[in-house]
Specification:
Layout lengths: L21 H7 L14 E3 L2 E5 L8 H17 L3 E5 L5 H19 L15 E3 L2 H8 L1 H8 L2 H11 L4 E9 L19 H4 L4 H6 L4 E7 L11 E2 L9 H4 L3 H10 L10 E4 L5 E2 L12 E9 L11 H19 L4 H10 L24 H10 L4 H15 L2
Parallel strand pairs: 2-3
Antiparallel strand pairs: 1-2, 3-8, 4-5, 5-10, 6-8, 6-10, 7-9
Length: 396
């Protein structure tokens, strides 16, 4: 029950039937994290590797590949979680984005018909589809934020290219209670009965369709309740069923760890890791725990949220095209921004109207359309027309 290897499931029954033993999780979580296994990390805290990233433009492609190899191993069979210190090292940028978030929260609070629940309690603030709303509300800070090439490096280390970035914002206020431990999307969002109907291999495969991340927009001391984590728990094969059982919840309560975060830090973890948001115990005038939650999806899975590329391009095109002119097609910043704005996977589509071209087996994706428009030096209106034509061609 404690393997992230698909071949290990072949000799077992198709579905999970036998009782799930807490001893399997206890054995898994007894492992220690040694820094020699993660030599690119700065240090290990409570079993979690901490990385202090160099300025991206000072690193070589070989160094970036080594980082990706280390993160991949770590997420697969290692602790399952890591921290990137100062992922966003410009506090002014983080504050600009936070201001945009607070403006969106205020606008939505005035909408009496909006039901904007969160996963903690009704006193907290939540922005669904924060990526799309942020891009339209404040294109300048959106472009600066999502052109961070380290976001792309981290996402592609687990998911490969053409990932789909989505974001939700949580503002967790003092007095907010902790979550119960859980696993995340996909199987983590199903009922226990429904989850049990999926074969063992799907229980392993689900984790490869998503990467969970969070960017701290304020300093988060332990008293503010940063995410509770159970290192190595992602390797429990039956974990999507087990995390709901009382003895597993109790084990998590006794053995989870949390790390304080500073403004601009990033936290990334395998979605199968047992985790939960902590209790904000900072008092009436304490910390409003503001975080941008990144849910990054494989092109081969269905993202939880839909992102509409047209309004994002409408809002951001002038800045994007200027960056392209300044930095060129080889810019990792431009590539990261396009990956945040547009879909990199062309399917599903209507192959009668949207047939593959040339020697390719696949038609153009939204990202392909954007790149071709940039290279052709098209204006915003022509680019929006191309995207609308592409959208119509994909419909059934």
């Amino acid at each position: 029950m404690a393997s992230n290897s698909l071949p290990d499931q072949v000799s077992e029954a198709r579905l999970f039937h036998q009782p799930i033993s807490i001893d399997a999780l206890r054995s898994i979580c007894s492992r220690e994290t040694n820094q020699e296994d993660y030599p690119l990390s700065e240090n290990i805290q409570d079993g979690i590797p901490i990385y202090r990233l160099k300025p991206y433009d000072t690193t070589t492609p070989e160094q970036r590949a080594l980082l990706q190899d280390e993160w991949y191993r770590l997420l697969l069979n290692g602790p399952g979680v890591f921290v990137t210190k100062a992922l966003f090292g410009d506090d002014h940028l983080v504050d600009r984005v936070s201001h945009a978030f607070h403006s969106i929260i205020a606008d939505e609070a005035r909408d009496k018909e909006r039901q904007n629940g969160d996963h903690f309690g009704t006193k907290n603030d939540r922005i669904w589809n924060a990526l799309g709303k942020h891009g339209v509300a404040d294109p300048a800070s959106f472009v600066d934020y999502y052109s961070n090439p380290y976001l792309s490096l981290i996402a592609s280390s687990w998911l490969g290219p053409a990932y789909r970035l989505t974001a939700q914002v949580n503002n967790v206020k003092p007095g907010s209670k902790a979550q119960v431990c859980h696993r995340d999307y996909h199987l983590g969002f199903l009922s226990a009965d429904r989850c049990a109907q999926f074969p063992r291999a799907v229980h392993v495969a689900s984790q490869f369709l998503t990467l969970q991340g969070a960017v701290a927009h304020v300093d988060m001391p332990l008293s503010s309740g940063p995410t509770r984590l159970l290192p190595y728990s992602q390797t429990l094969t039956a974990g999507y069923l087990a995390y709901r059982l009382p003895e597993f919840v109790d084990f998590f309560q006794k053995h989870h760890v949390s790390l304080p975060l500073e403004k601009g830090d990033g936290l990334f973890f395998n979605p199968a890791l047992f985790h939960a948001a902590g209790e904000n115990q900072t008092g009436e005038r304490g910390v409003n725990r503001l975080a941008n939650l990144l849910q990054i999806s494989s092109p081969f899975g269905k993202a939880m949220e839909a992102v509409d590329v047209v309004p994002l391009v409408d809002a951001c095109w002038d800045i994007l095209s200027r960056r392209f002119e300044e930095q060129g097609k080889s810019s990792d910043e431009v590539a990261a921004l396009i990956a945040a704005i547009a879909d990199g996977y062309p399917f599903p589509t209507n192959l009668d109207r949207n047939a593959p071209g040339g020697e390719s087996m696949a038609p153009e994706s939204e990202q392909d359309v954007l790149w071709s428009c940039l290279e052709a030096r098209l204006g915003k209106m022509a680019t929006l027309e191309r995207l609308e034509d592409h959208r119509r061609a994909r419909r059934a």
